[in-house]
Amino acid sequence: MRILLTGGSGMVGRNLREHPAATQFEIIAPESSELDLLDRNSVAQYIRKLRPHLVIHAAGKVGGIQANLADPVGFLVDNSLMGIHVIQEASQAGVNHCINLASSCIYPRHAKNPLQEKQILTGELEPTNEGYALAKISAVRLCEYIRQSDATKAYTSLIPCNLYGRYDKFDPASSHMIPAVIRKIHEARQAGLPSVEIWGDGEARREFMYSGDLADCVFTMVEKMLLGESVPPLMNVGIGVDYSINEYYHAVAEVIGFQGTFRHDLDRPVGMHQKLIDSSQIHGIGWSANTSLRAGIEKTYEYFLRESKNG
């Protein structure tokens, strides 16, 4: 079975490629130099020539609050074009199976937690990553429309909670929260600093899942789809538990061995107050995450240390 994987060099893509189940498939993961996902004609030609049995769309322009605020145009336009090109051209080329990876930022900012799939497009989005969210919503809807218009198309979107893990980015200007915190606290410990700054009061709550668990979920869905089992068109993928920003800082500090204190900058943006997703639907079909927060942070920190040493 041949799988086309977009975003194969990113964190999610690399976790997918190193997952034990990946050896059962011929996974084609072109670099951006080989396939420009912003060029529709190139995408169409590539898919028609490759003739994959299944497409996993994991590519995207990603980043934390700072990155989204700095380039909202890029996050909206690039992610919209990539999603539309890959998903629509796969459908038109006769690819009957597609897994699209969305994001929990597509939920309304004031939606009641835990977030359920039916709440999408029922309210205002979080302004700090609105462009990215709009792009991801368009890809989710496109998969649903294709599925509704053609019964042979099993196109499914997975909505993971916040992710972290091996192959993550650790640059504070572009990274997500946990890798940014890992680097910040590591450097503070190395420099002997007495304290580390936290944006806001630290009481906002987030659900973070180790990226290796998402890879495990994706291959579970791949197996079900290729066996002809019915898979819902839209499913949350999370661990079912959230923690405060303060708790994440303390968990990272414990792993790294930082003995200092934390101070809060109340003038900094913090995003949504809470973002916990309801994963009961995917748990109901037999999948759940198995990496604890402590174990995930340890694995991610080990990767960070190795990359820092090699860099």
Account of the 3D structure:
The protein has 311 residues and is of the alpha/beta class. The chain has a single domain (2-310), classed as 3-Layer(aba) Sandwich (Rossmann fold). The chain has helices spanning 11-18, 40-50, 65-70, 72-92, 130-149, 177-191, 211-226, 245-256, 280-284, 293-310; strands at residues 2-6, 26-28, 54-57, 97-101, 154-160, 162-164, 195-199, 205-206, 208-210, 234-237, 243-244, 261-265, 274-275. The strands form four sheets. Strands 2-1-3-4-5-10 form a six-stranded parallel beta sheet, with helices on both faces. A three-stranded mixed beta sheet has the order 11-8-13. Helix 1 links the parallel strand 1 (2-6) and strand 2 (26-28). The model has no long low-confidence stretch (mean pLDDT 95).
Radius of gyration: 19 Å
**Domain tally:** 1
The helix/strand series, from N terminus to C terminus, equals EHEHEHHEHEEHEEEHEEHEEHH
Stated plainly, the CATH topology is called: Rossmann fold
* Low-confidence regions: none
Outline type: globular
Q: Helix tally?
A: 10
Alpha-beta content class? alpha/beta
- Write down how many β-strands occur, each being a DSSP E stretch of 2 or more residues: 13
CATH 4th-level superfamily? NAD(P)-binding Rossmann-like Domain
**Percent range for β-strand residues:** 15-25%
Itemize the secondary structure elements and their pairings.
Elements: E1 2-6, H1 11-18, E2 26-28, H2 40-50, E3 54-57, H3 65-70, H4 72-92, E4 97-101, H5 130-149, E5 154-160, E6 162-164, H6 177-191, E7 195-199, E8 205-206, E9 208-210, H7 211-226, E10 234-237, E11 243-244, H8 245-256, E12 261-265, E13 274-275, H9 280-284, H10 293-310
Parallel strand pairs: 1-2, 1-3, 3-4, 4-5, 5-10, 6-9, 7-12, 8-13
Antiparallel strand pairs: 8-11
